[in-house]
Amino acid sequence: MSFERPQPGADPADPRGALLHTPATMPPAAALPAQARTGETPPAPGTATPRGKGKDPASPPSDNTGPEHSQPAAVEPGTHRPRPAPEAVPDQPGGEQGRAQDGGGQERRSGQGAVPGRPTPMRRDGDRLRFVGAATRRIARGIDLDEIVMGLCRATVPTFSDAILVYLRDPLPVGDERPTGPLLLRLRRTDRIPAERDTEGNFSPALQPEPPEMTGLDAVGAEICEVRPGSALAEVLRGVRPVFTDAPAARAALPELLGDTGEFLVPGGQRAILAPLRGRRRVIGAALFLRRPERLAFEADDLLVAAQLATHSALGIDKAVLYGREAYIADELQRTMLPETLPRPTGVRLASRYLPAAETARVGGDWYDAIPLPGSRVALVVGDVMGHSMTSAAIMGQLRTTAQTLAGLDLPPQEVLHHLDEQAQRLGTDRMATCLYAVYDPVSHRITIANAGHPPPVLLHLGGRAEVLRVPPGAPIGVGGVDFEAVELDAPAGATLLLYTDGLVESRLRDVWTGIEQLREKLAATAQLTGPDHPPPLEALCDEVLDMLGPGDRDDDIALLAARFDGIAPSDVAYWFLEPEDAAPGRARRLARRALSRWGMEDLSDSVELLVSEVVTNAVRYASRPVTLRLLRTDVLRCEVGDDVPQLPRLRQARATDEGGRGLYLVNKMARRWGATRLSTGKVVWFELNQT
């Protein structure tokens, strides 16, 4: 229903008469059609006051008793009572856009029937303002590129246009980056009114077949086009303002944008608008709005609407690209801060999980790590820096690197935490973190644990019993001036140790100890499913643990590390002490030959004796204390030789005149892997051979 203000001197037969602009000065008597006073007989329903037949414009204004100030009488149901349009909103140009229908389906000005299934045109600037407000709110709801482009398409079709094509620069520049190479526009998304629509949005189903211009929309537009410098399309994009495609410049730009065939599918007249999409610094694309030939053409004010839509969409796309870059940096930071893959040390199997606090907070201060140590041992680390921001992730990365370095020195767990505490104090006074550091020895089936204010680990035994290990809590890292205490506990074969951060057990809905008890019960219930003699698979166990999280339990990021202790049987270990004397290499060869014969691995005797002799010879040359020799039989044969000299051997190419320097060269050529690790009491040189 339209409520336009009648204009003085307008011809009632002229369909544009009621849409002419209101003069700057207009007599008050012409502001409203005549209305009945109280007590008078109101006009009959359907009877309209003649337009332009009010008081004579030259007549003096009446007093407050005139029709302009009279109180309206009670109106019968169904009676149309016009009201004035706001003075601040000018009427639209073009009378066709302002035609309204009466109750019988006829348009009041033309008397023609309305086309069913077509969107109702926006008749006043107020309609345009409301549409622009709703469309920009929908566009602003998007947070990534696809959501913003979809919001633009869904907001404009079918209310503003019957179809839309959105082109974006490929690749999209990020922030202040200066694009390089030619300007390429790629068709990002198209949208149009389908052949059959539901009645959502107060539009009836389309009953008429779509014209060829709309049915061929799927073929409109090249997938990608190059904007050549100085071309018509480049000039339109440089102009920034939306233009009708019937303008000469825009008509010349269509073949370049849509291809040679797409130009002829664009409706003629003012039924297509080409709107450049300009971001903060440069044009990043273009949008093409299309209307069917039987629909009312665009008006001059619609260019302002298109400009608003293009501006909000372009700025939103700019922000989405920046957000995508930030999300990429966060993902890469998190990926590099956490282990990409876990090691496969001898005698233990590992599994891990990490969950950020929320989709918008992809990084945090939680971390986990597994570090192989000499003697087939492995260090298990889990920690939590306060917060879940980029700063927390950066501090976490520094602490994790420090922990790896300290683990390589084979320091006791309590010493590792002490040095981490000192490092956190050097990073800043407010750098606080919790950490749990454990060292598992598969040969002795023991585990040594030190804690710095972290939730205690949970041990799941083979029979299905889950217990919370009693570990001294300690103070968080970064407090300073505190001592850390380590405890040594049994780690039976088949047991599973679960290390986690407080995000798994603590939330706004439960305290930390309630969450730990729920975790223990969850582990015990999961172990019952596989029976007392078969521990649950590690990956499935981690998934089951995360399933205990409810909808409101994700207040912090979560790091989870599970270790299944397989151990190494005593029958697969051979260990000796050798005095640092000249006869030590020969004795080492004999001991290794006997161990291999006992294990049924005589085919490796020659290789093992040669390599053991070379490594032991290097050890006894500089050692002052007994040298250790240990053989481990797992999926590979591992040999370890330890001495009290901290200097690590280096592989070098011996000259033809050198008497030595070829031992490590032989080890490097014959062994599957080899290495040397510095210990607090010296070093260990090891090598591995495949079992044949």
TrEMBL record:
Pfam families: HATPase_c_2 (PF13581), SpoIIE (PF07228). Residues 348-565 form the PPM-type phosphatase domain. It comes from the Bacteria. Residues 95-104 have a biased composition (Gly residues). CDD domains: HATPase_RsbW-like (cd16936). Gene3D superfamilies: 3.30.450.40, Histidine kinase-like ATPase, C-terminal domain, PPM-type phosphatase domain. Keywords: Hydrolase. Residues 18-51 have a biased composition (Low complexity). Residues 1-128 are annotated as: Disordered. This is SpoIIE family protein phosphatase. It comes from Streptomyces spinosisporus.
